[in-house]
Amino acid sequence: MLLKFGSIPTVVVSSSETAKQVLKTHDLHCCSRPTLAGPKALSYNYLDIAFSPYGDYWKELRRMCVQELFSPKRVHSFQPIKEEEIKKLVDSVSESASQGIPVNLSEKFTALTVRVICKSAFGVNFQGTVLNSDKFEKLILNTFLFLGSFSASDYFPNGGWIIDWLTGLKGERERSVSSLDAFYEQMFDLHKHGNKEGVEDFVDMLLRMEKEETVLGSVKLTRDHLKAVLMNILIGGIGTSAITMTWAMTELMRHPRVMKKVQSEIRNQIGNKSTISLDDLNHLHYLKMVINETWRLHPPSPLMVPREAMSEFEINGYTIPVKTRLYVNIWAIGRDPDIWKDPEEFIPERFINSGIDSKGQNFELLPFGSGRRMCPAMYMGTTMVEFGLANMLYQFDWKLPEGMVVEDIDMDESPGINTSKKNELVLVPLRRLNH
Ligand code: HEM
Questions:
Q1: Where would I find the beta strands (DSSP E) of 96-221?
Q2: How many CA atoms lie within 13 A of 404 on its CB side?
Q3: CA-CA-CA-CA torsion for 349, 399, 413, 372, nearest 10 degrees?
Q4: Per its UniProt record, what Gene3D superfamilies does this chain match (predicted)?
């Protein structure tokens, strides 16, 4: 589908076949990112991984982050942090269970991912930071909102900023960017003054690279480059995993048969052990199907991150000119009746022997995208989701708050680059029997 937004030709791809042409066959023609007002402000002028144009700087920065933060080896080294944080979560939910009090799972999952990301990547406890307040969740939600909203300056390069100013988008954006900036400054201060736990972490390494005047591509790293990378970790890491866990629990509450089956699998696998290991996760095949089914219906980034054509190419006989903006609608592909039987139904069993997984090679299911720009933190995100859900399903049974029935569970989505459940998921935990 071709749309003309202001002066910008915009192509939306909504079938798996065409997605394959864009993300695989012609990946090299269109693996840059468009220049957009929201990302520009957040990424200090496109100095990050997600929004920087295709080129040597992006390649080297991405490679460095994969090596130092996203690789399975690094992710495994963060497992004790995850275990510590999940224990705190289980303790707090147990407290509510013993009193029969409902818990806000959307909030709990966000808090879990924030804490794990802060400790793993930044080496600090989130509790001690300037963002540790009720405002944090709102800040993150606002950031997703303005990243995904149609900013007039993106389509009317000459005068669009006036519209953004009048609608309040510009002010909102500036406030979010300045709150996040204060957070990064605090991270650097904590690291410089040694007021943090442990040995050299990712932020120490970035600071060292800045001091040594390290060059990536032909770009010398400055403080702004460092902040842009921290933004990717914070914004990329937090929303996506928490959104997935919340949607998965929502679907499980709507489908008691699936809930029972996945809990039995987890409880049989774990037995009476007190912790769930990374190795245990490898054996939870049905849980993985539940998560894939969640990603099919509720991909956290339903239009992925937009791409921009760097050179002219053809799709299905149509010429895609240079500078065309491309969105891949993975939300529509996940619900395409030509691919999926009963597409609106939540049936994890559809993945048994289907040969389809979410690792970017099957264009029917692309929660992490595909090709050169595919999410570099897929392993980190997947293990976070599996670990969080496995623990919540192993330790507790769940029921709806008093007076609510399954039909009352709403499935409204929030707008933005990342689509979360609009209304928070609130459930009553019950300590599981025989525990
Ligand atoms: C459930 C978890 C996650 C999902 C579903 C997800 C999804 C995505 C998607 C759809 C893209 C765009 C891919 C494309 O354009 O082809 C992306 C890119 C990216 N993600 Fe993730 N993500 C997740 C977790 C994370 C985490 C934990 C981090 C960092 C801590 C992260 C950092 C990034 C970055 C830096 C990019 C930009 C890559 C580039 O442009 O080269 N993501 N992610």
A1: 103-104, 215-216, 219-220
A2: 16
A3: -50
A4: Cytochrome P450
Q: What are phi and psi of 296, to 5 degrees?
A: -65, -45
Can you read off the two tokens belonging to residue 209?
């690279």
Number of domains the chain is built from: 1
Distances (CA, A) of 184 to 78, 89, 121, 132, 293: 21, 26, 12, 13, 36
* CA distance linking residue 376 with residue 369, whole number of Å: 10
Specify the CATH number for the domain of residue 213: 1.10.630.10
Which residue's CA is the closest to the ligand 1 atom numbered 9?
368
Q: Which atom of ligand 1 is nearest to the CA of 299?
A: 5
Neighbouring C-beta atoms of residue 281, cutoff 10 Å: 18
Question: Does a structural domain hold residue 424?
Answer: no
Tell me how crowded residue 35 is: count the other CB atoms within 10 A of its CB: 15
Domain coverage including residue 267? 2-417
Quick check: ipTM above 0.90? yes
Amino acid at 20: K
Identify the bridge partners of residue 326 per DSSP, sorted by sequence position.
11, 307
Pocket test for ligand 1, best of 375, 385, 419 (most atoms within 8 A of CB): 375
Model confidence pLDDT, tens digit, residues 112-169 = 998 899 889 988 877 667 666 566 666 776 676 666 566 666 666 666 666 666 666 6
